[in-house]
UniProtKB/TrEMBL annotation:
Residues 1-19 form the signal peptide. Keywords: Signal. InterPro entries: TM0957-like_sf, UCP033535_lipo. The keyword Signal applies. This is DUF2291 domain-containing protein.
Amino acid sequence: MRKRWLAPVALALFLPALAGCKIVQIADQEAAAPAGFNATAYAEGLWIEQALPHFTETARPVAEVLPAIVGDLPSAGAEFGYRPGEGSPWSFVVTGTGVVAAKNTESRAGTMEVTVEGLPDPVVLQIGPVIRGNAVRDALPFVSFQDFTNQLEFADAGKALTAIALAATAPISEAIAVGDTVVFTGAISMANASDRLQVTPVVLEKTAP
């Protein structure tokens, strides 16, 4: 008998508390939730109209930029590079033509070595699928940390921009073999002279034999 009256009593105690609450349907909760930062949409929104033209229009000959970086990074930065402020990495946008001397795909951070006339050592291109650093993002003067809510959004924007560049160049790099002649445009990021001197390509083409 005790069990039969416990339920009505418990319900009577619960209803007054419930009366002061607002019940929101699950669909309404999802609609009311603020939308998070969409890094992919952000990157896609500026790639064609701003990012790609910036790379193609501001690129300097890699045969001029690389020796300058090796000789004196701050001087090379002042002449050829960009950085948003003191202490930030120097960014360089370069272009060049050369013959593929090596293609390293054993590591997921794959690279391609391109012999360019006028340079004693091959230019190293990052071909992925893992791309180190944020050279693509950091080379764009219109992508500023101040435009983002926090460091995570800024990092996600960098990953999304790099992903677009990789998606455009990966099918081409896969088809390129040692001995092929290629044309490339890409970005270099250097915080210190001891950093790896690598180009993250945003444009990669195989020329006709």
